[in-house]
Automatic annotation (TrEMBL):
Domain HPt: 128-222, 301-398
Entries under InterPro entries matching the protein: HPT_dom_sf (IPR036641), Sig_transdc_His_kin_Hpt_dom (IPR008207)
UniProt-annotated stretches for the region Disordered: 230-284
Ranges that cross the membrane: 20-43, 49-72
Stretches with biased composition (Basic and acidic residues): 243-254
PTM annotation (Phosphohistidine): residues: 167, 341
Descriptive protein name: Hpt domain-containing protein
Keywords of the record: Membrane, Phosphoprotein, Transmembrane, Transmembrane helix, Two-component regulatory system
Length: 402
């Protein structure tokens, strides 16, 4: 015979224990057959003959018990040892048997990295907690399920999608202080450039998905803390809406958006312009993006405004095509709703009113299980592209001015 490796192997021989067992069973049964009648006769016969028969019967029964002990107890232990030896031999003869894989774990350098560094992010934003909160909310809306997306894309063999997600995630996570996500996204992007499936790439994607959970918990804890702080501050103010209106009232044509805790309910209140400083240099506002209102919301921090616009462009370029594909494919309505809701939230934060308005209409239809036409989705795509173009134009002008 030949084994799995192609080498000859001897045929299995009959076990010595099995042969001995058959003989022992036969002797034991014979002793019992002889002992029981002899015991009966010895009990009925008087004198020396009867006592002799009883003694012989007892000896035969004891011998039968001894044989039974050796067969049932002692040989059982030897059989177990033989089974273990055979098992070990089988593993040696079959090299294709692989050990059980160990659970995935982070490398030592990634394990030592910070999950979410809120202090770093606050320092970057000059202590502006509202700004940090807005950035994190955008991250949660846009990227919180990127770990699951990248694993599904890899399972589908879509290496281009894996590379796109990892590249976007690498840039965003670096600016937010999520070091573990940044490190793993960078490794995934480097590995997927080979355009080939590998166990290393699969493990990296699984690890990336795994680190999202502690990061999401840490970010949510920060958001909850920020909400508590803002709630306490609002109770100490008499009329926060009127104070906000007075703060930005010197800007002509500015609109103050008042939103409650429900992101779906919003109203726009026009603020009457006050005296305008004629010496202040102003630029023609874009109909797609109100940079002046965004700058006011950021307390005049031009660097933060530019950073927000860069993140907006990077995260949403091509998102209109994704929306069109989701809206036209059956069973993808929830995905389309998530895209529209995320775009609406970003539009509110960036004061991009046209984008917010068309997304608001589409979102309401999706939530009421009404159909959203391809033309409506194409309008959202065109509005998004115009908003991105306005942001790019502003960044270009700012770079020239710098």
């Amino acid at each position: 015979m030949k084994n799995a490796s192609g080498k000859g192997s001897a045929s299995p021989k009959p076990s010595r224990h099995s042969t001995v067992s058959f003989i022992g069973i036969g002797i034991g049964i014979g002793l019992i057959v002889v002992a029981l009648p002899s015991l009966y006769l010895g009990a009925t016969m008087p004198g020396v003959v009867g006592y002799s028969l009883i003694a012989l019967s007892v000896m035969a029964l004891v011998a039968a018990l001894g044989i039974g002990y050796n067969l049932l107890v002692k040989n059982k232990g030897e059989t177990l040892l033989d089974a273990e030896a055979l098992s070990g031999s089988a593993i040696e003869m079959n090299p294709t048997i692989e050990p059980v894989s160990e659970p995935l774990s982070l490398s030592a350098d990634v394990e030592a990295m910070v999950i979410f560094d809120s202090d770093y992010l606050l320092d970057t934003m000059d202590g502006d907690r509202d700004m940090v909160t807005m950035l994190l909310e955008v991250f949660v809306d846009e990227h919180l399920d990127d770990g699951h997306k990248i694993v599904k894309a890899l399972q589908a063999g879509d290496f281009d999608q894996v590379q796109m997600i990892s590249h976007s995630l690498k840039g965003v996570s670096a600016s937010l202080g999520t070091e573990q996500i940044h490190a793993l996204a960078e490794q995934v992007e480097r590995e997927v450039k080979k355009q080939a499936y590998s166990e290393k790439l699969e493990n990296l994607c699984e690890l990336l998905k795994m680190v999202f959970t502690p990061a999401a918990l840490a970010i949510q804890a920060f958001l909850d803390e920020s909400a508590d702080i803002k709630s306490r501050e609002s109770t100490q103010e008499n009329n926060p809406q009127s104070e906000r209106a007075e703060e930005i009232g010197h800007k002509e044509g500015i609109y103050l958006e008042v939103t409650d805790s429900n992101p779906d309910n919003s109203s726009v209140m026009a603020v009457e312009p006050s005296r305008i400083d004629e010496s202040t240099e102003t630029t023609a506002p874009s109909p797609w993006l109100d940079v002046d209102a965004l700058r006011d919301a950021m307390d005049g921090d031009e660097e933060t405004v530019c950073m927000l616009l860069e993140i907006f462009i990077e995260d949403n370029a091509g998102k209109g095509q994704v929306l069109l594909a989701a809206a036209s494919e059956p069973g993808q309505q929830e995905h389309a709703l998530n895209i529209v809701h995320a775009l609406k939230g970003v539009a509110v934060n960036l004061s991009a009113r046209p984008l917010r308005e068309c997304c608001d209409v589409a979102e309401a239809k999706f939530k009421q299980n009404e159909s959203v036409s391809i033309e409506e989705c194409r309008e959202i795509e065109q509005t998004l592209n115009q908003t991105i173009a306005s942001a790019q134009a502003y960044l270009s002008k700012s770079a020239v001015g710098a």
